[in-house]
Design goal:
Shape: globular
Helix content: 25-40%
Structural class: alpha+beta
Order of helices and strands: EEEEEHEEEEHEEEEHHEEEHHH
CATH class of the largest domain: Alpha Beta
CATH superfamily of the largest domain: ATP-grasp fold, B domain
CATH topology of the largest domain: D-amino Acid Aminotransferase, Chain A, domain 1
Largest sheet: 7 strands, antiparallel
Number of strands: 16
Strand content: 25-35%
Length: 284
């Protein structure tokens, strides 16, 4: 049987098939760049199904080829890979995460609270945590395969990657964010923030990696979001924020080894993933 090089990431295995890759989403779970002992049954299949659906409807070219086992090399046509594997074109990765924020949350809010800026650009005073921004904002991060990705300013990205490429990626990212936000709104869901990754195939920039999943995005039901903002409460999001919130509550130092995840937290996480799958698969 032919053997293929494999890269084992935090939550995904990648098989190098030459000019193609097979991305295999595991049930491993990570938070704050640490992989936990617990597996989240069915997580890899849900994320694959969500990402594959988005790739078929988003308005720019992507690396997506197929999720059908008949299209895979023979050794991958078995139950271990079925439902959690995606065949894609191999691209040269552009080493920046293209984050778009529709609301001021997470590390974006931390920057704003300390300096009044977002990705190095000033914002008006008085924006509350979780509040929607008047327009989505592109906030890049430098990729780091060995640790945390590093948030940088747009000016810094322009110095490193060039102004033309930076502006192109910013434009594509905001276009994709707006497209997805409009589609999600039809299901009563707000897209709060997300990240995109891009690569080169020849001279063409294409969308790669996963896209608009609960692992790479923050979502909230519109009614729940508006109620939380009005009452000054924490926003109940439909993604893995439920686990991050739990880990913050127990004052974990975010270094290995990770603490065990209670079954209640795992169940709440999976309920959110299932909800997002049902909603996203209705979008056309």
């Amino acid at each position: 049987m032919e053997q293929y090089p494999v890269y084992r990431g935090k939550v995904r295995n990648v098989y190098d098939l030459g000019d193609q890759l097979l991305l295999v989403a595991s049930d491993r779970f990570s938070a704050f760049d640490v992989v936990f002992q617990e597996r989240i049954p069915g997580k890899g299949k849900i994320l694959t199904e969500i990402a594959a659906h988005w790739f078929t409807i988003l308005p720019i070219p992507s690396h997506f080829i197929s999720v059908h086992p008949a299209d895979f090399p023979e050794q991958f046509r078995n139950a271990d890979f079925e439902g959690r594997s995606m065949l894609v074109q191999k691209a040269k990765r552009i080493d920046y995460e293209c984050v778009v924020r529709g609301a001021l949350m997470g590390s974006g809010y931390k920057e704003y609270a300390s300096s009044g800026t977002l990705a190095g650009s000033p914002l008006p005073a008085g924006i509350r945590q979780g509040e929607l921004l008047s327009n989505p904002v592109f906030t890049p991060a430098r990729k780091n395969d060995m640790g945390h990705d590093e948030n940088i300013s747009i000016v810094q990205m322009e110095k490193e990657a060039g102004r033309e490429l930076t502006q192109k990626l910013a434009s594509l990212s905001i276009e994709l964010f707006q497209f997805a936000a409009q589609r999600l709104a039809t299901e009563g869901i707000i897209l709060l923030d997300t990240k995109f990754e891009f690569g080169w195939i020849g001279e063409e920039i294409i969308l790669i990696d996963e896209v608009l999943t609960p692992d790479s995005s923050r979502f909230a039901f519109k009614n729940d979001y508006e109620k939380a903002i009005q009452q000054g409460q924490q926003i109940p999001t439909l993604d893995k924020q439920v686990v991050r919130d739990y880990l913050e509550s127990i004052a974990w130092d975010k270094n290995p080894p990770p603490p065990p995840l209670p079954k209640e937290i795992v169940d709440r996480l999976m309920a959110r993933y299932e909800t997002m799958k049902e909603k996203i698969l209705c979008i056309t």
